[in-house]
Amino acid sequence: MAVKPLNERQLFRMKRVSLEKRINQYYSETQDVDSVIEYGMAVLVFNAITMTNYSFICKHLFKEIFLTSEPTDILREYCLYFYDYFEYHEWEIVRDRLFKNRAEFSERTRAIRPETKYVRAASVPTNKKLDWLYENYLEEWQRKLAVKERYNYALNTVFLDENGKRHKQKFLNADVSIPPTKLKTLLELLTRLTIFEKNGVRRFYESVYPECEVSVGRKHYADEAKDAAYLQRKREEAETL
Hints:
Elements: H1 8-13, H2 16-30, H3 33-49, H4 59-68, H5 73-78, H6 88-98, H7 102-109, H8 113-116, H9 127-136, H10 140-145, E1 151-160, E2 166-172, H11 180-190, E3 197-198, E4 201-202, E5 206-207, E6 213-218, H12 228-239
Antiparallel strand pairs: 1-2, 1-5, 1-6, 3-4
């Protein structure tokens, strides 16, 4: 049975190991360079939003594509976003394969250079951000209810499809402190991708940025006695009484 294209739920919800396997499998069976590069772009955007580490996903595959595949407009359009994937001598090979000369490269990439800083593959989330959100984003009464590992954060975004129909996209475990300029740029990057379709209609056609909302949830466990973090907090509270 032919492998199916990946959709937004898979790209933005699957665990890293499973997602890498699916992207590699799709390319192995289809050799669809342009779609796979757009999958990579979607994950770069997701990695910039989530606090889960998706940095350098499918590194060997994307290096192979840029270094050996027949040049396409999609490769030229998105190559600069994958700069971190390469050693400098490898990057020079990529640039020379895709463009006639450095002048053409500079001209084709001038407009996007300011935004590439928002989707650096080398940007790896750390626990420091989770600590910061817990201390600065939650009210004191919320912090008393549960330790930081119990809280989860999400970004609820709104897009229009090609026909103007609204749909929502929820990003889980999100860094909800992302500056507005960065978030707007990331969402607009998704609107350039052609891989997301439903019944032949382009999704993520336009971002309705002003309607983005943050949500904070708290995990509940059936058996508190099995939660080591919860028990440690209770012990610390008892020592202060």
